[in-house]
Amino acid sequence: RDLCRLPPYETTKIVNVKERWRGRRLSDVLAVEFKLGAEYISNATLLQKLLVNHVACEADDVLENGDVITHTYVVEEPPLRSDPVLVIAENEHLLVVQKPPGMPCHPQGRYQRGSLTEILRLAYLGEADAYLHP
């Protein structure tokens, strides 16, 4: 089967510091909780892809109550089968489709933009913010 790949894209995640992270170094939290390597953390802080409270930070910064970590990174989603999404029926209230096997219905895990709802939202409805209830 032919596979298709979405182009890599940059995304940003924002997380509030958890109680168990308080008093710990940023690098320790990112290594243990998010499995990020020391070299990656060092580069991300240098490039300001990791911020604490929306300002530049160092890997050795100690996290405190109320801190907010912002992480901007590139996502490469796994390939999907290149089979089309078939529209079976539609009216002003309903859209019935047949999705290819292996394509998730909802954004989840390693598939965000490569899910049925996101593909329909962008390709069929033409709006990234359009309401779509699967």
Structure, explained:
This protein is of the alpha+beta class and 134 residues long. The protein is built from three helices and eight strands; from the N terminus they run ββααββββββα. It has helices at 26-34, 38-46, 116-124; strands spanning 3-4, 9-16, 50-52, 55-56, 68-75, 80-81, 86-90, 95-98. The strands form three sheets. The protein has a four-stranded antiparallel β-sheet with strand order 2-5-3-4. It has a two-stranded antiparallel sheet with strand order 1-6. Strand 7 and strand 8 form a beta hairpin. The longest helix is centred in the first third of the chain and has 9 residues, at 26-34. The model has no long low-confidence stretch (mean pLDDT 92).
Summarize the structure.
The protein is of the alpha+beta class and 134 residues long. The chain has helices spanning 26-34, 38-46, 116-124, and strands at 3-4, 9-16, 50-52, 55-56, 68-75, 80-81, 86-90, 95-98. The protein contains three helices and eight strands; from the N terminus they run E-E-H-H-E-E-E-E-E-E-H.
List its traits.
134 residues; alpha+beta; four-stranded antiparallel sheet; 20% helix; elongated
Query: If helices are DSSP runs of H or I spanning 4 or more residues, what is the number of helices?
Result: 3
Topology, number of strands = 8
3D shape: elongated
Largest beta-sheet characterization: 4 strands, antiparallel
| Uncertain parts | none
Report mean pLDDT, rounded to a whole number.
92
| Approximate strand percentage | 25-35%
* Pattern of helices and strands: EEHHEEEEEEH
Structural class, from secondary structure content?
alpha+beta
Radius of gyration: 19 Å
Strand order of the largest sheet: 2-5-3-4
Helix content: 10-25%
Q: Ends: how far apart?
A: 26 Å
**Regarding quaternary structure, how should these chains be classified?**
single chain
